[in-house]
# Entry
Amino acid sequence: MPRIYSLLIIVTIALCFFSGKNRFVQEPWKAPVWTDSLYNPYNIEPLTLPQAQEVYNLHCIRCHGGQGQGYPLEHTAQEVPDFKQDWVRQQSDGALYWKIREGRGIMPGYKLKLSDEQLWQLVEYIRDLSKPFDQQKNPFKNLEE
Ligand code: HEC
# Structure
């Protein structure tokens, strides 16, 4: 009889583990509402996009792709969003800034690795990537590869 109980406990733990993991992945990633009031304190300059692109190509492109299209990742059910989707475009600058700072799951947070100015430059860069290719302002824009 006790065997049945230990079996039940193991099954319950396994169920919690797997369902918990799936729930985490499928839940949309929402930034806290207060992040909508954050704004970019730095000036937008001609070099803002090219500088952000350097950082992006170093840290982000391996998952997000040259045009922000997103690659399928191995060893995780987490999906990389396409930056041209409405879901990304409709978010505030502050929300995107906060997400790049904090990260989630397989996406690392960058608050300790990048300067505040670099984080805001990346927000501008994602805004540019979310436009159709021929409307992007970055003179050195990446191809989708
Ligand atoms: C190891 C892969 C990986 C790297 C490296 C990475 N990301 Fe991500 N990123 C993801 C994944 C996966 C998600 C989706 C997370 C989720 O919704 O749970 C994501 C989501 C995002 C989002 C939120 C989009 C949305 O749907 O709201 C932004 C913005 C973002 N990444 C920017 C960046 C930037 C900028 C960098 C580089 C500084 C970067 N990421 C590096 C994997 C990565």
Remarks:
- The mean pLDDT is 90.
- Residues 29, 59-60, 62-64, 78, 80-81, 87-88, 91, 96, 99-100, 104-107, 110, 122, 126 surround heme C (CB under 6 Å).
- Residues 95 and 140 are 26 Å apart (CA to CA).
- The two ends are 59 Å apart (CA to CA).
